[in-house]
């Protein structure tokens, strides 16, 4: 999807933005086609609006030619950005072949029965001869005025629509994805059975002859008025398209910024979550260590209590032993006194 010269893959853009972009392109295409229809209507030519939905413009043109058996086609030879470099008629005469990729693709791949004139600002640049001339007496049946193919859900299958010139101004919301701004489609007037074109008039040159000289054109003053109105409308359409592209680009840029901020926020949230889980793991480890320390402390307290009890018992026994020792000392003293008395008594008996 092209936005302001940049290309974005459709998968990288939101579905709502893709639908909005396609709707803007569809409206722009219908507006350009209606301007061409208006020019043809002013010239008294009955025309039909024919468009198809394809992935690329050049493939859509080839598909239109193939499906509708278009035998005569006038198409732009150069892209818009090449017009400014061609300032004079001699510059146009130097252009001997189509310059745009779309024109070259159509020139190479269009069916052989299609006779194509490639023009640039009203000057014939190149002619691709067809294998046969169109049957001017051919007349389309009313049932062929509005053939439609069902559009698939993927949004890229060919969708063909054909609307008459009177219906084209009433129905401006039909499906398409590209503009035929450089394509002039021939139509048949039922009254004259003569083919006419909605493109700008081609000048008659001495060195090139082509079958467009017999085309009837509106008067010069009507051409000037129509061209001025068309030029203003085209400028307005281009300005609207640029504004829409700018808005789409800004919206896409804001969306990408929001996505980036969301990704950063998600990364920060994940980092915070990882940090939280790490802290939670450390806290659990500390709690386990604290529980173990508490258990060791409780065991130490129990051992202390046992030791205190044993110490108390030992102190009690020590006091008891001290009492018994005192008693033993007293008894010992008494025994010593008795032994002394007995010894003295024994000595006295010996002296007798």
Automatic annotation (TrEMBL):
Biased composition annotated in UniProt, kind: Polar residues: 140-158, 189-200
InterPro entries found in the cross-reference section: U-box_ubiquitin_ligases (IPR051348)
E.C. number(s) listed in UniProt: 2.3.2.27
A single GO molecular function term of this UniProt record: ubiquitin protein ligase activity
Coiled-coil portions: 231-317
Taxonomy, superkingdom: Eukaryota
Assigned keywords, A-Z: Coiled coil, Ubl conjugation pathway
Spans annotated as Disordered: 137-158, 189-227
Reaction it catalyzes: S-ubiquitinyl-[E2 ubiquitin-conjugating enzyme]-L-cysteine + [acceptor protein]-L-lysine = [E2 ubiquitin-conjugating enzyme]-L-cysteine + N(6)-ubiquitinyl-[acceptor protein]-L-lysine
Top-level class of the enzyme under EC nomenclature: transferase
PANTHER family in the record: OS02G0152300 PROTEIN (PTHR45647), U-BOX DOMAIN-CONTAINING PROTEIN 33 (PTHR45647:SF100)
Protein name (Swiss-Prot/TrEMBL): RING-type E3 ubiquitin transferase
UniProt source species: Saponaria officinalis (Common soapwort)
């Amino acid at each position: 999807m092209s936005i302001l010269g940049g290309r974005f893959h459709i998968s990288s853009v939101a579905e709502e933005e893709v639908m909005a972009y396609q709707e803007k392109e569809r409206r722009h295409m219908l507006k350009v086609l209606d301007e061409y229809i208006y020019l043809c209507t002013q010239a008294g030519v009955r025309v039909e609006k024919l468009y198809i939905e394809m992935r690329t413009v050049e493939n859509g043109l080839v598909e239109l030619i193939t499906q509708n058996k278009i035998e005569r086609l006038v198409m732009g030879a150069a892209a818009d950005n090449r017009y400014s470099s061609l300032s004079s008629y001699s510059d146009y005469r130097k252009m001997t072949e189509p310059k745009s990729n779309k024109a070259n693709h159509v020139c190479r791949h269009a069916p052989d029965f299609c006779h194509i004139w490639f023009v640039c600002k009203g000057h014939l640049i190149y002619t691709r001869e067809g294998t046969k001339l169109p049957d001017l007496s051919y007349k389309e049946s009313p049932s062929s005025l509005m053939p439609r193919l069902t559009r698939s859900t993927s949004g890229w299958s060919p969708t063909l629509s054909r609307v008459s010139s009177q219906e084209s101004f009433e129905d401006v919301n039909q499906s398409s994805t590209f503009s035929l701004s450089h394509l002039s489609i021939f139509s048949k007037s039922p009254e004259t059975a003569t083919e006419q074109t909605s493109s700008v008039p081609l000048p008659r040159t001495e060195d090139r002859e082509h079958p467009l000289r017999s085309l009837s054109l509106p008067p010069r003053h009507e051409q000037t008025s129509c061209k001025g109105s068309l030029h203003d409308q085209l400028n307005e359409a281009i300005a609207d398209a640029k504004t829409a592209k700018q808005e789409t680009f800004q919206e896409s840029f804001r969306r990408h910024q929001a996505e980036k901020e969301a990704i950063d926020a998600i990364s920060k949230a994940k980092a915070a979550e990882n940090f939280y889980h790490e802290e939670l793991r450390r806290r659990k480890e500390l709690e386990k260590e604290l529980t173990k320390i508490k258990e060791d402390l409780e065991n130490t307290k129990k051992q202390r209590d046992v030791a205190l009890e044993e110490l108390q018992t030992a102190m009690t026994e020590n006091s008891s032993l001290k009492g018994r020792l005192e008693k033993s000392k007293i008894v010992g003293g008494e025994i010593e006194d008795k032994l002394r008395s007995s010894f003295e008594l024994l000595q006295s008996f010996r002296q007798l």
